[in-house]
Amino acid sequence: MPFAAETRVPAALTGRVRDAGRNSYRRLQTYLIVAVQAGLAAALSWVIAREVLGTPEPTFAPAAAVGVIAAALGNRTRRTVELIVGVIVGIAAGDLLILAIGTGPWQTGVIVFLAVTVAAVVRGAGALMTQAGGTAVLVATLTPTAPDLELPRTLNALVGGVVGLLVVLVLAPLNPLRTVRRVADSALDVFAREMTASAEALARGDARAAEAVLDRMRAAEPELDRLGEVVGAAEEVVRFSPVRWRRRRALKAYRRGVEHMDRAFRNSRALVRRIGSTLRDEEPVPADLPAAIEHYGEAVRLLHREFLEAREPVRARERVLTAVREAGEACRQDMGFSGTIVVSQLRTVANDLLRATGVPRDEARRMVRRAAAGY
């Protein structure tokens, strides 16, 4: 027994290391384009600020360009405005205070404090306050060696912001569908796979397996969060980048579905939790109930496939309604308290998934009710 326990620990550790490596590789695939964009934007903005504007210290141009790209994947246009405003606030606060109190360690602390305070007063978000504080630090430390740069600093910030947008929207825009596919393949595959695993646990009467499914679903939640982030960034690209306009239809379907998919995933966790209760209480499990949950997982796979093919997700809708019908058949048989709640939860997630396919709210409810009644 001790030997078996010792062998299980390294095996579990190896599995965690393998999962961490796989997740790191997926993130690298997704965000490598961001590193390329940041490097290109920094180089271009430095050249423009130094060679075109003639600024002897073009520090703020590449800093602003990288900030535009690295601040967030989505909402870059809004964050660019925040970043440039933050730079201007930091420059203004730094230059005015340096004239009054000079430079030094305590002066730098005061300058940063007041710059961030001003940004907060104007209701700036985190990006604006961070940029204001960072810019104030640069002003306080660079001024003794490079004075009289108030106007060039502001121009450099504007150049960096514009170059950053130019790179991400025109020169090196991400491939929206490829990026979304990389994240969605992983996130939705986990979703569908865990639904299949929960159906198998229910069919076998394995409460521990159901608990393991629930643990894995909790751990997988960041995958769906990242999907929403990446879809938002991709949608911004196809909205503003001429070379990606033709992808708008496919991305529109994903944007419409991501919110409801996220809700379906969270509600599915409640479903799996109740499956565990059903099994621990040794309630009767009609064969139709595991089959219904398996069909629900298949519907997730079909929805992803039809989104990528830019087709109306008809097959996914049909599979969802099949799951609801089978759950309804199970409910009309001998079931316990937790089993009936499993059926109720499945109808809830079915409604979420129908909404993800583009069905209006009232129509989705009507379809679920009719399918549950056996029509």
From TrEMBL:
Keywords, comma-separated and alphabetical: Membrane, Transmembrane, Transmembrane helix
Membrane topology: Multi-pass membrane protein
Entry GO terms, CC: membrane
Chain ranges passing through the membrane: 28-48, 60-76, 83-104, 110-143, 155-174
Stretches assigned to the Integral membrane bound transporter domain: 45-167
Location(s), subcellular: Membrane
Keyword field contains Transmembrane: yes
Acetylation in keyword set: no
Leader sequence residues: none
Pfam family, one: FUSC_2
Protein name: Aromatic acid exporter family protein
Organism: Micromonospora endolithica
Lineage: Bacteria, Bacillati, Actinomycetota, Actinomycetes, Micromonosporales
